[in-house]
Amino acid sequence: MKAVAFKEVGGPEVLRPVELPAPEPGPGEVLIRVAYAGVNYGEVQHRLGDFGAPEGGTVTGLEASGTVAALGEGVTGLTLGEEVAAYLPDGGGYAEYATAPASFVFPLTDVGLDLRTAGAAPLVLTTAHGVLAGAALIAAGDTVLVHAAAGGVGSAAAQLARFLGATAVYGTVSTKEKAEYARRLATTRSSSATASWTRSGRRRPGAAWTSCWTRSDVPQRR
Predict the structure, then answer these.
(1) 20 to 30 A Cα–Cα from 97, which one of 128, 167, 169, 193?
(2) Cβ pair 163, 152 in contact under 8 A
(3) Mean pLDDT in residue range 135-142
């Protein structure tokens, strides 16, 4: 199978196309024919060596979507050819085939996501949900502050926070461009974030974001 791997840490230039044997699913695993592989900061960290030095040719990629190509022993509830998305805790998504634990494989039947969108969903959605529901124990009426609000996890967290009952969601980003992007994703007001907060202090009804600030909007201590 074709894959993209790296043997040394560094910038994008260390990534190389390679030919590798297709993996086989072990017990409790699913073999996926990859249609789309997500690109997250986690893959960048992997390539930069934050997860340790690569052992030989390392294939990164922590999430992917595609179709079920084979089922390992004991796997039920999935069928060959079914469209799925998967979180890949051991990487391997930058390839034509990847294996994942069955518990991390999500059928797309009746979900309403195409394969392209689903390929970028498993890692950010599970991370955002885990932080909000598992760690923060968000409840109806809570106010939520999301840092890096224009990122994959941040933009997912804003939408999930509303779904989980938050009545106000604030975001911080590093640039004006990211603020516009975050507001666009969350269908919020188009006025400046600073004006939205200092003039009214109230969220716009129906908006996912109550406000979104850049670093320059926050007063600095002297």
Answers:
(1) 128
(2) no
(3) 93
pLDDT of residue 158: 85
Closest residue by Cα to residue 105 from 84, 120, 130, 74: 84
Task: Find the farthest-apart pair of alpha carbons in the chain and give their distance in angstroms, rounded.
Answer: 63
Amino acid at 109: T
Work out the pLDDT band at 103, boundaries 50, 70, 90. very high
Is residue 22 packed enough to be buried (19+ CB in 10 Å), middle (13-18) or exposed (0-12)? middle
Distance CA 8, CA 156 (A): 32
CA–CA distance, 84 with 79 (Å, rounded to integer) = 10
H or E element that contains 167: none
With b for 16 or more beta-carbon neighbours within 10 A and e for fewer, the 8-17 pattern comes to ebeeeeebee
- State residue 177's pLDDT score: 84
Q: Rounded to an integer, what distance in angstroms lies between the CA atom of residue 144 and that of residue 55?
A: 40
Count Cβ atoms within 10 A of the Cβ of residue 138 and give its class: 0-12 exposed, 13-18 middle, 19 or more buried: buried
Cα 152 to Cα 88: distance, rounded to the nearest angstrom: 17
User: 43 pLDDT exceeds 70?
Assistant: yes
pLDDT(186) > 60 = no
**3-class secondary-structure state, position 85:** strand
Q: State how far Cα 133 lies from the chain centre.
A: 16
- State mean pLDDT over 23-47: 95
Closest CA to 173 of 189, 194, 195, 143: 194
- What backbone torsions phi and psi does residue 42 show, to the nearest 5 degrees? -60, -40
